[in-house]
Amino acid sequence: MSLKLGDVVPDFTQDSTIGPFRFHEWAGASWVVLFSHPRDFTPVCTTELGTVAALKPEFDRRGVKVVGLSVDPLDSHARWADDIATSQGHALNFPLIADGDRSVSLALDLIHPGASDTTTVRTVLVIDPAKKLRLTLTYPASTGRNFAEILRVIDSLQLTDRHKVATPADWQQGDDVIIVPSVDDDAARALFPDGWAAPLPYLRTVRQPA
To answer: Are the C-beta atoms of 17 and 96 separated by less than 8 Å?
Structure first.
C-alpha cells in the first residue's frame, strides 16, 4: 500500500510504550505527527526523540499529538528511553510504537526496499483530525529531522484550512499570506476588506488573518 496526500491513514492496533495502541482511538479529534525510526539506539534518532520531547508543549499548543515508531520490541524501547533522557535532558513524554511484526510499517509504507528490506525509513507523517494524510517527509539516515519546520508546516496547514489563503516560501507566523486563485477579486473584497497587494495579477498578498 502506498499512502498519498489526502488518503485516510488506516487504523491499526500495536504494542507501544503506553500499552496497546489503537491509532484512531488515540488520535481522537487531534492532529497527529507520526515519525518512524529505523531501529532503537541509533544516534541521530536519539537526538530527534529528545528534541520532540522538548518541543511537546509546542505540539500540545497546536492540538497535535506525537507518536514515534520503531520495529524493535518494548523492552528495547524502555532501555532506549533511558538513554534518551540521560543524553538529551528530556525524558520520553509521548508514545513509541513497538512494531515488531512490521505490520504498521508496511501498512503506512514505511519500509522502502531500496533502503532496507526490514527496517523503516525515517519518515514523518502529518495527519489531520479527519485522519487524512496532509504531509509526508522522508529523510536520509545521516540527516536529523527539522522539527521546527514540521511545526511551521502544521501552522500553515491549520491556517489555510481556516481561511482561503496559501502561505508563500519561507512563511512564518505573522507574515503576509497569499489569496488562493479560486477566490476572485469580488469574493476577495468581502473576505479581505482592507485590501491586498498584487505584484502580479495572480499573486495577491494580504496580512495573515487572525
So the answer is: yes
Q: Average pLDDT, stretch 135-149? A: 93
Task: Report the alpha-carbon distance of residue 92 to residue 134 in Å, rounded.
Answer: 25
Residue 165 makes CB contacts below 8 A (sequence gap 6+) with 159, 177, 178, 179, 180, 206, 208, 209
pLDDT tens digits, residue range 148-160? 999 999 999 999 9
Residue 127 backbone phi and psi in degrees, to 5: -125, 135
Grid coordinates belonging to 186: 469580488
C-alpha cell at 151: 511545526
Q: Which three cell numbers stand for residue 163?
A: 481561511
CA distance 12 to 10: 6
Structural domains of the chain in order of their starting residue, each with its CATH number = 13-143 (3.40.30.10), 163-206 (3.30.1020.10)
CA 123 to chain centre: 9
Residue 110: is it exposed, middle or buried by C-beta count within 10 angstroms (0-12/13-18/19+)?
A: buried
- Say which amino acid occupies 64: V
State yes or no: is 135 an active-site residue. no
Instruction: Let me know: does 70 contact 120? Beta carbons within 8 Å.
Output: yes
Q: What is the pTM of this model?
A: 0.94
Which position among 27, 33, 34, 45 bears the catalytic label? 45
Do residues 72 and 40 touch, judged by C-beta distance below 8 A? Answer: yes
